[in-house]
Amino acid sequence: MPSTTTALKHRIGSVRNTRQITKAMELVSASKMRRAQEKAKLSRDYQIAAYDLLARLSSLKETQIHPLFTRRQVRSRLYVIITSNSGLAGAYNYNVLKAFTANISSDRTKGIVSRVITVGSKGAQFVRRLEGVELMAVYPAFGDDSSSNDLWPLLDTLIELYRSKSIDEASLVYTIFVSNLKQQATVLDILPAQVQEEEDHPVYKYSFTNFEPSVDVVLESVAARLLEIQIWQAVLESLASEHSMRMVAMKNATDNANDLIDDLQLAFNTARQSAITQELAEITGGAEAIGQ
Predict the structure, then answer these.
(1) Range of 89's domain?
(2) pLDDT tens digit string along 230-277?
(3) Is 167 contained in some domain?
(4) In angstroms, rounded to a whole number, what is the distance separating the alpha carbons of residues 221 and 215?
(5) DSSP assignments along 221-267, one per residue
């Protein structure tokens, strides 16, 4: 710690400037988080309904002929990683990339080739440093004013890669917003468009289903739309999680700055008092010397 009052004064001023920045970022993130949280919650019911419809379709024999529902041996898996363009968001990007690396490690043991499309520059920076992982495309992070229409370039790429058999499976890696203090990184399989039956989410099966005007026409228009809904909900959840974690990180940084300023102010007062005491002692000593 600086020992002179001048250095301590400069240090206190520097920390105060940093505190102003972190406080402003905290307030901005809190405002963005509220809007992003509302969007994510409002669309969850729609996403759940789309998931149920996808589950019903995937259980039908008629859908197995459609390219997006066809399941084949997995030799190549594509991961779509949703991260941010900027940092200072706590463990937001770290948690997503940790879930991703755990999955590619499992793929390597099985001899599966891993390919990646990243949304956000942080994910691209990380993937570029990995050996044996192909970075196929990089998309900018979606902003607060983005709409589901902005997904279509990414969605068209996914569908084309699966139709051409360049990949055998595709998964989303993103963060689910649970609460302001809890966000969960998860991996969601989106291609082929089939839903695995779970205890808390059973797959409905029907003995007879009639498609009008035909199976091909219905699936061609519905399959891409259902995939779009899953991806768009992942984007909304990720935005809410990012703003929440950034708000908490900036609040912690502001609190730490306050504590550091208090410590520096105490050290400054102590140093100044010591300097005053020393000056008084020197003056007293000088006066005694003159008096003698």
Answers:
(1) 57-246
(2) 899 999 999 999 999 999 999 999 999 999 999 999 988 888 888 788
(3) yes
(4) 10
(5) HHHHHHHHHHHHHHHHHHHHHHHHHHHHHHHHHHHHHHHHHHHHHHH
**Each residue's pLDDT tens digit, 26-45:** 999 998 988 998 999 988 88
Residue ranges with strand state E in 23-123: 76-82, 113-119
The structure tokens 């710690």 sit at 1
State the pTM of this model.
0.82
The CATH number of whichever domain residue 145 belongs to comes to 3.40.1380.10
In a domain? residue 190: yes
Cβ contact 176:81 at 8 Å: no
How far is the C-alpha of 89 from the C-alpha of 246, rounded, in Å?
Answer: 4
CB 141 within 8 Å of CB 121: yes
Inside any domain, residue 16: no
Count up the domains in the chain and report the number.
1
Residue 19 domain-assigned (yes or no): no
Neighbour-count burial of 256, counting CB atoms closer than 10 A to its CB (0-12 exposed, 13-18 middle, 19+ buried): middle
Nearest to 230 by CA among 2, 92, 4, 46: 46
Residue 275's nearest CA partner among 34, 8, 1 is: 8
Q: Is the peptide bond before 192 cis (omega within 30 degrees of 0)?
A: yes
